[in-house]
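Archive record:
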Amino acid sequence: MPSPAEEIKKLREEISRHEYLYYVLSNPEISDGEFDELMRRLKSLEDAYPHLITPESPTQRVGGIPDKAFSPVVHEPWMFSLDNSYSMGEFLDWAKRIKSLLKTENVVFIAEPKIDGLSCAVEYRKGIFFRASTRGDGRVGEDVTANVKTIRNVPLKLLGKNPPEELEVRGEVYFEKKDFEDLRKEQLQNGQDPFANPRNAAAGSLRQKDPSICAGRKLKFYVHSAGRSVGVNFKKHSEYLDYCLNSGFSVPSLNRICRDEKSAIKFYENLLKKREELEYEIDGIVVKVNDYALREILGFTAKSPRWAIAFKYPSQQATTEIEDIVFSVGRTGIITPVAKLRPVKCSGVTISSATLHNFDEVERLDARIGDRVVIERAGDVIPKVVKIVLSARKRELPKVVPPGRCPVCSSPVVKEDVAYRCSYPLCPAQIKKSLMHFTSRNAMDIEGMGKSVIEQLVDRGIVKTYADIYKISKEDLLKLNLFKSKKAENVLREIVNSKKKPLSKVLYALGIRHVGEKIAEILAEKYGDINSIACASIEELSKVAEIGPIIAESVNSFFANDNVKKLLRELEKAGLSMKVEERTREQKLSGLSFVFTGELEEMERKKAQEAVKKLGGRFSSSVSSKTTYVVSGKNPGSKLTKAKKLGVKILSEEEFMRIIKG
């Protein structure tokens, strides 16, 4: 007769196998009742012998939220978003560009459906579920381990023998159509506002404080990309997906190897015909270069991998009526006409307003209140008016014309090309939206300075510029709605803490056109202080890697503005960082590129990377012929093998420490 430990082990293996058959392969061997009986038997044994309970047991899928829930998780390598193509021509241009960069016509692609869900990374240590996190901004996500653990087709223990030391899989958390509709019905019955679409439902589910709520929502997960791994290597993405499937994961069953772009287009067209029949929502396909070695050559732009693209389907459309046309003032003062619509569902989302882009477009459409219009979600995201299908022709209603004065501050409106812009830089609408960007999480990250607070501060004349944030007093905050002493103190503490943000965050927070987080980091790393960036010419800026003439001109003109110069002096006086901390004058690692692999014992990898940056060097997550050194720690991964193959010099951790310590 087997011991309790032996029976528990056998039950866990059997239950895991049946979960894989049911949730991944959709090919169950036993009935639901028989499966439930296995779970009951395992639960009773674990109740009797609690010391034998382990985290990877099937009974442990639902637990309490740990203290680290929703805390930041740094992605290494980054979880990049994809570039989009919305037409055949754009896709063919991408394929042509890929072949040109690789200098070959023989490029094999792999294509898969683009499911409308939430990106997520799931990590395993020695084959055991370790952690799960959202994509976030690509560099830092949120820890959602307890909730992802409840998703039944996410294995708690990898199938097969000899699991790798570390494995991170990246994929999509999503709802099938029928499960999403069931959830909406349940919310309506309970008097709750239902989720608008499956993606919002997935995101909302992963942010539940109680994992049992997430467990009851029938979420699914499928793997589409590789993250960091130690102890296992792959040459092709198709091999990686096969490995994941055999390890217990769901992978896109409709993925196809495409020998050329024509095959990918055929897959795109065939899947479009089946779109409505699929169990889940898709908005296109993703096409990737299959060979990992070729991906290394292609690399990344500031935002996206060059070796992959989302080939989106035409936007879904709906018909409704314009109830009003209003003018919205943006962060840069541009005035956009917006159609207020009779609410209508489009691509699973209820739409009540849509952009009319600019006043040239309004004139072309001759859009008026009362018109019946076709709207679509551009890229299945931004609602826009496409055409008039039935004109109201109420001649008593005048044509929509550009305003002569700003609808918010009544300042004169100036015309720039096709755009109309409020001429007053301190217009409350511009200030409010600029301040919301400045205080946002990915910028200065001032918690408590949300939309309502900013609107009150601006309306009361307390804040007019970014610098005014650092002059706010406790008395100022206590004048605002719903503010008491403790809340005011918390916001003031957040404002003080924001002064510690690095130069790259300050640059991004300033809202320079075309300067996102990645470009801000590149500028900070290259120039070291804000005065050097401000003094750089367009020609000098254009020579910086990943910065073209458009970005260079935008940066140059921004810092040439006298109001900006005054603002920078005030921000510096307030104590914000205007230079890279501890920037080393000698920059002895300038021009050198480092890649780290394995575990460092004397210094955390992130700190080692920061040490390289401070000394003027660069670090990367992948090895190429341009890599100067690969620093190899304990249990190195495939990067070490690739470094040897490419002849890149390999350093031990001790050798690396000697270099950075001089």
In short: The two ends are 65 Å apart (CA to CA). The CA atoms of residues 159 and 247 lie 5 Å apart. Residues 428-498 form a domain with the DNA polymerase; domain 1 fold (CATH 1.10.150.20). The chain has a mean pLDDT of 86.
